[in-house]
Design a protein that fits this description.
It contains ten helices and 21 strands. The protein is of the alpha/beta class. Strands 2-4-5-7-6 form a five-stranded mixed beta sheet, with helices on one face. Helix 6 links the parallel strand 10 and strand 11. Helix 3 packs across helix 9. The chain is globular, with a radius of gyration of 22 Å.
Length: about 425
């Protein structure tokens, strides 16, 4: 994905077709397309005639299509002037930041660059061992602050923890340490370089036993807030085998990203640390001088991680009108002995549409996904159910709710 925040391939459905192969969009533009399907007539079909393309001059940074933030579309049929004008209005209602009715032939929709409005409990585990060196340590700290700048910081927004590790874990920042982004970044940049061994297992242990505990500022699982940890290291872990500590952390609902820098890393170990799917959660970088090129990618992938849902317990979520939230159930142990799983959602105020995907490559189900691995309940009932049939691969699944105001999610196995 290079310089892009994150490219998402939209999936054609009964209401969306693509007359070109340019079917990648930014995360924000994907959200607009999801909303557009909800506001147009159910009998209408949208045809996307141009989007991001590899034929674009990649040196032309002023082209919004270069950033996958602009598409051209129209109705599949009957593109009268009046219908296209109405479609332009629908595009504005769906969230396009800039709309143009081009020569009464098609609509141009462009959106602002992606940012992250999702609250996350985000931890950085930073290798400060002897092989890193002071110069690269400063580069790594700048990388962390650049990622942090992508998020809104606060007790009701994203919270950040930092665990520097080498022979020992030292001077770490907890979630309840800062609610001001400026003060947080200043403290991160002042993080001491210690040198020493690469004892990654200690950082993983501290994350599991302290950082992600509610008494130190972490939000409870019942909040549905994503828990994300990022390991930045240039070497193999010394001392105890670190993989079991990573497994314990993941079992508590934390998604782990592994970022390996340089030639001294152990790729197999980093793959074992990371959450599934590995391709989305492991990044290998040649050197610290190249690390800034990956700020956008890591920021966007972090922002779209689903929140954990603990089976059998309620998850309560409050969101602005016309917004989405993604979740993933922590239910692998249950599924080993179960033939099916049922998701129940209750609207407390407003209305919610429920989408469930069992495809590990489709972590963002929604109105634009219409295939055998996506299940939908968009009824007007207060209580909605989706039961995944027996025999389907339910070892990995995620769900998306289109929220009006406030919902409760209940899971029954």
């Amino acid at each position: 994905t290079g310089p892009f925040r994150r490219l998402i391939r939209y999936i054609t459905s009964l209401q969306v077709t693509a007359s070109s192969n340019d079917s990648y969009v930014s995360a924000r533009l994907k959200l607009v397309l999801d909303r557009l399907i909800l506001v147009i007539s159910s009998s209408d079909v949208i045809d996307i005639i141009q989007g991001w393309s590899e034929d674009i001059d990649l040196n032309d940074r002023l082209n919004l299509r270069y950033e996958a933030r602009s598409i051209r579309f129209r109705y599949k049929s009957n593109n009268s002037n009046n219908r296209l004008r109405r479609l332009a209005g629908y595009a504005i209602e769906a969230g396009c930041d800039w709309v143009r009715n081009q020569d009464d032939d098609y609509i141009i929709c462009s959106v602002r660059p992606d940012d992250c409005r999702v609250p996350i409990d985000l931890t950085f585990m930073l290798d400060t061992s002897g092989s890193v060196g002071k110069r690269n340590h400063k580069i790594a700290l700048q990388f962390i602050t650049d990622v942090v700048s992508y998020f809104n910081i606060g007790s009701n927004a994203t919270q950040v923890a930092l665990i520097p590790f080498a022979t020992y874990v030292h001077s770490y920042i907890l979630f309840n340490g800062f609610t001001d982004k400026g003060a947080l970044i200043e403290d991160i940049l002042a993080t001491h370089y210690s040198g020493g061994w690469t004892r990654t297992w200690k950082a993983l242990y501290v994350s599991d036993k302290y950082v992600y505990k509610t008494e130190y500022g972490a939000r409870p699982l019942s909040s549905g807030i994503p828990r994300v940890a990022i390991i930045l290291t240039d070497g193999k872990s010394n001392g105890y085998d670190a993989v079991p500590y990573a497994d314990d952390l993941k079992a508590s609902g934390v998604t782990i990203f592994s970022v390996g820098i340089g030639k001294g890393i152990d790729e197999d170990e980093l793959n074992e640390f990371a959450s599934e799917p590995i391709d989305d959660h492991v990044i290998f970088i040649d050197s610290y001088t190249d690390i800034e090129d990956f700020v956008n990618r890591l920021s966007a992938y972090t922002c779209t991680e689903p929140g954990p849902v603990d089976p059998g317990n309620n998850t309560e979520v409050e969101l602005p009108e016309d917004d989405f939230r993604y979740f993933q159930a922590m239910c692998t142990a249950y599924l080993e002995n179960s033939t099916s799983i049922t998701i129940e959602e209750t609207d407390v105020n407003g209305s919610c549409s429920l989408y469930v995907s069992t495809d590990p490559d489709n972590n963002n189900p929604g109105p634009l996904t219409n295939n055998i691995t996506t299940f939908i309940n968009a009824s007007n009932t207060v209580i909605k159910h989706i039961t995944l049939p027996s025999g389907i691969n339910t070892t990995v699944w995620s769900l998306m709710c289109f929220i009006i105001t406030l919902i409760f999610i209940y899971l029954f196995l």
